[in-house]
Amino acid sequence: MTTSPEEVGAPELDARTWLDALRSAADATTGPATLEWAAAEVIHQVCAAAGWPVGRLLSVAAGRVAPTEVWHLSDRDRYESLRTVGDAGAQGARLAERAVALGEPVWTGDLAEVGPVSAEASRAGLCGAVAFPVRDQGDRNGGAVVAVVECFAERPDRPSSDVFTMAAAAVGQLGRIVDRDRAAAASDEAVLMAEVAHDAFIALDEHGRIVEWNPEAEAVFGWARREAVGQPLVDVAVPARHRQIYEEHLAAVLAGDSTPLVPRRELVAIRRSGVEFPVQVTVWTNGNNGSRRVCGFVRDLSERKRFEGQLASQALHDRLTGLPNRVLLRDRVEHALARAGRRGASVALLIADIDRFKLINESLGHDGGDRLLVAVGLRLTELLRPGDTVARMGGDEFALLCEDVGGYHEAVGIASRVVGAFEKPFEVQGADLSVTASVGVAVGALAGPAPELLLRDADVAMYRAKDGGRDRFEVFDETMLADATSRLSVENDLRRGIAQGQLRLYYQPIVHIDTGAIAGFEALVRWQHPERGLLPPVEFITSAEETGLIVPLGRYVLEEACREAATWADMQAGGERLRVSVNVSAKQLAQPGWSDEVAQVLAESGLAPRQLVLEITESVLMDDTDTTAVRLEELRRLGVRIAIDDFGTGYSSLGYLRRLPVDILKIDKSFIDGVAEGPHESALARAVVKLASTLRLEAVAEGISTRKQLLQLRRLRCPYGQGYYFSRPQPPAAIPGLLHLGALEGVDPGQ
Ligand code: C2E
Ligand code: MG
Ligand code: MG
């Protein structure tokens, strides 16, 4: 098609509208619908998108164009007369014939070309028409034109070629079903339709009695053909309560004062068994006065509805436990708060988190962990009243929503029942498993109407319960929020502090216990806060870990410590290479590629891998053995040493010591404190030193602060020590002086 000058200034094509029209056209022509039904839909879409007020379908058989009853009238009153005239025939429809002959869309500004309807069209204010051929897509020999869609325009100028292309594409979709429908037109339409349809096909006479009832209709409704035919459809398939409306509709369709094609609708039907079910109905009429029929496809939607229901339920429930998930809980909290607001009652939200679940999961295997979660879900459900909700928030976290709670005291009562519910062991894989939970409680009235706030408050309280030693509950109060908020401000400050170079490393010597000679230093981070002065790690490490800032912080510490330690090479006494110990947090260790980072830092600093000790606290090693083991192996291959920090503070079995590549045990200060006080108090330290030597690990006694302790540790044959007795952590500038002293034994700075 060439671009005509009229196109200049034509309004721009609205691509989205046309895409929607194309989609609807494809949709309408993929189902089992008739050509008439699909054409009505497609013409409606095309006319709406192009702004054409009237459209119609013409059928083509043996090259001859014939009218059909399919019309689209955007304004019934204004254009109804076209349809009436159209019924008289389409002889002289030259535009349509041209489209058939050319096999492509054609436009005319001369309405005489459209045949008998032209006079009516001009009278109604129409000025031009376009005809689109529909090619038979089932025809292998080139696709004969089997129908024409003709649309009328109010403007005398030719539509743009874009509009032509889009409209032609939409109309072309009809070719898919032409093949089938052409055959139907050739013989008794209803019978053929009944055979080709995938859906139940039903035809009614003008009294609403069934004349056609295909095998699908038998299957769907449960009535055999011979039973159904002759019966009024209303007695066979319509639930009693819809009788009246059905009869009104049928009368309207038969009277023809409804559009002949009723677009797809969803209704309720009834089976022979009396069971109601959802259906989608597509209705049209055919035949003329005296033999008018109402035909319809009925699709049983029960399966689809069930599936949709399943999908919705899957999206809102946790797969493992079947409990509502976070999304559904949030919704319920929202409704509960709204109801509580109206009634002046309270809502309690509890969040229960299983203590040390990771550990359990690892020792039982994931399957065992899953079973435990299911069992916990069940037990919590039993605990509550029927209207309350137990949800799984993800992982090992559950939420309990209780409505109509009398207030604070009742909420406390529920919380203590929840903690108590964990007293009885859970049976998992045939064994009794004892677990505890930490529970946070928030009461609705305090939080106000936003569900997020209530969830946040319960969460804050739950973390407080964890911090407070687990196996307990905490009720949210405002001071907790203040704490959480101050943590937030620490986070912001710290982020800035890291970026602006406010971190400092201090170094504490680690000595040979026998000689007091320095074997290395542990790097300990400090924060030179612009307002608060030099801050120790207790003030910021936890929030750095919670916020993930520990990753850039740790990176800085590692780089700085390695860089610093590389400068000690010239100063070391006795030919021994000084080590530097760096504390590593779980988050760093969990980073994929972290070992590569360590290798890179070592290479850049020039420090030998054997000089670097990475200190990892015992709880980290117990919590996530799988990834930890992998990471430690990688580090071991680099040649760095691994130390277990604060050894003895965990609760673990010692099995992991055998499995993991560990070189050094740092005995926690709490074991060292009492070491000089008698055989009873020193028993544990003695045992750990012994354990280390059995496993061929180096032991470092942490926090030695008196000479007595030192002497006792010498007696126990602990090889290394660290503590204020030798030296407090020192800034880097003090290191040459310490090294110059040679041995630190007996030096007692400030104790
Ligand atoms: P830690 O790794 O167990 O470090 C030993 C802590 O014990 C240091 O506290 C040290 O100053 C203190 N200490 C040493 N000897 C004595 C003693 O004789 N008496 C007493 N009362 N304390 C002694 P600091 O520097 O406050 O560090 C505390 C913790 O912060 C460290 O425990 C470590 O877990 C963490 N930390 C420090 N720097 C870093 C770091 O760069 N990264 C990470 N992830 N954690 C760090
Ligand atoms: Mg340490
Ligand atoms: Mg320690």
Write the layout of secondary structure elements.
Elements: H1 15-30, H2 35-50, E1 54-61, E2 64-73, H3 76-87, H4 94-102, E3 106-108, H5 118-123, E4 128-135, E5 145-153, H6 161-172, H7 175-186, H8 189-196, E6 200-204, E7 210-213, H9 215-221, H10 225-228, H11 233-237, H12 243-255, E8 262-270, E9 276-286, E10 293-300, H13 302-316, H14 326-343, E11 346-354, H15 357-383, E12 389-394, E13 397-405, H16 408-420, E14 426-428, E15 431-433, E16 437-443, H17 444-447, H18 451-467, E17 473-475, H19 478-499, E18 503-512, E19 518-529, E20 533-535, H20 541-547, H21 550-566, E21 579-584, H22 586-590, H23 594-605, E22 612-617, H24 618-623, H25 625-638, E23 641-647, H26 655-659, E24 664-667, H27 669-673, H28 679-694, E25 698-701, H29 707-715, E26 720-721, H30 735-741
Parallel strand pairs: 16-17, 19-21, 21-22, 22-23, 23-24, 24-25, 25-26
Antiparallel strand pairs: 1-2, 1-5, 3-4, 4-5, 6-7, 6-10, 8-9, 9-10, 11-13, 11-16, 12-13, 14-15, 18-19, 18-26, 19-20
Helix pairs in contact: 1-2, 1-6, 2-6, 7-8, 14-18, 21-23, 23-25
Describe the structure.
45% of the residues lie in helices and 23% in strands. It has 751 residues and is α+β, with helices and mostly antiparallel strands. It folds into four domains: 2-185, GAF domain (Beta-Lactamase); 198-304, Beta-Lactamase, CATH 3.30.450.20; 336-476, Reverse transcriptase/Diguanylate cyclase domain (Alpha-Beta Plaits, 2-Layer Sandwich), CATH 3.30.70.270; 490-729, EAL domain (TIM Barrel, Alpha-Beta Barrel). The strands form five sheets. Strands 18-19-21-22-23-24-25-26 form an eight-stranded mixed beta barrel, surrounded by four helices. The longest helix has 27 residues, at 357-383. It starts with 14 loop residues before the first helix and ends in a 10-residue tail after the last helix. Mean pLDDT is 83; it is low at 1-12, 186-196, 258-262 and 747-751. The site of ligand C2E has 21 residues, from strand 19, helix 21 and strand 23.
